[in-house]
Design brief:
single chain; alpha/beta; TIM Barrel; binds flavin mononucleotide
Length: 136
């Protein structure tokens, strides 16, 4: 199946598994990626070492693209951003805050950025700032 999303992420089916804090970790994300859609490791409530380890474990289970979700209200957001820039998941979904300042540093690391937005106003802002796709 060929859609803009399958082309953007290099996946077979245009389906992104929803991030679920405390639930979607490397095994689920890798399994969904191996099935032809794409999975997301949820970083909400987790520390930076946990996220780094989960990304590495997911990469051990799949060579397919998967993502990480950032909850922007997290107190350790700077540390989490640093881990993502170093570990380079294929994409990051991010919400619960203003995604705009995170787009450039993630792009500079070669990571696609897919904000989760609750309004047309924010959708237009993140599109203008270079978001690769938007989750409404
Ligand atoms: C248990 C649970 C935890 C969730 N945690 C997150 C999260 O950490 N980050 C996030 O962006 N969305 C989170 N969500 C929202 C889901 O990713 C998804 O957007 C939502 O369930 C709507 O998708 P659906 O219409 O396919 O169910 C969570 C949802 C559930 C059910």
């Amino acid at each position: 199946m060929n859609t803009r999303l399958t082309e953007l992420l290099g996946i077979t089916y245009p389906i992104i598994q929803g991030a679920m804090a405390w639930t979607s970790e490397h095994k689920l994300a890798a399994a969904v990626a191996n099935a032809g859609a794409t999975g997301v490791i949820a970083s909400g409530g987790r520390d930076a070492d946990w996220v780094r380890n989960e990304i590495r474990q997911a990469k051990a289970l799949t060579d397919k693209p998967f993502g990480v979700n950032l909850m922007l209200m997290a107190k350790n957001i700077d540390e989490l951003l640093q881990v993502l820039v170093e570990e380079k998941p294929a994409f990051v979904t991010l919400g619960a805050g203003n995604p705009v300042p995170y787009i450039e540093p993630l792009h500079a690391a070669g990571i696609k950025v897919i904000p989760v937005v609750p309004s047309v106003k924010l959708a237009k802002r993140v599109a203008g700032a270079g978001a690769d796709a938007i989750i409404i």
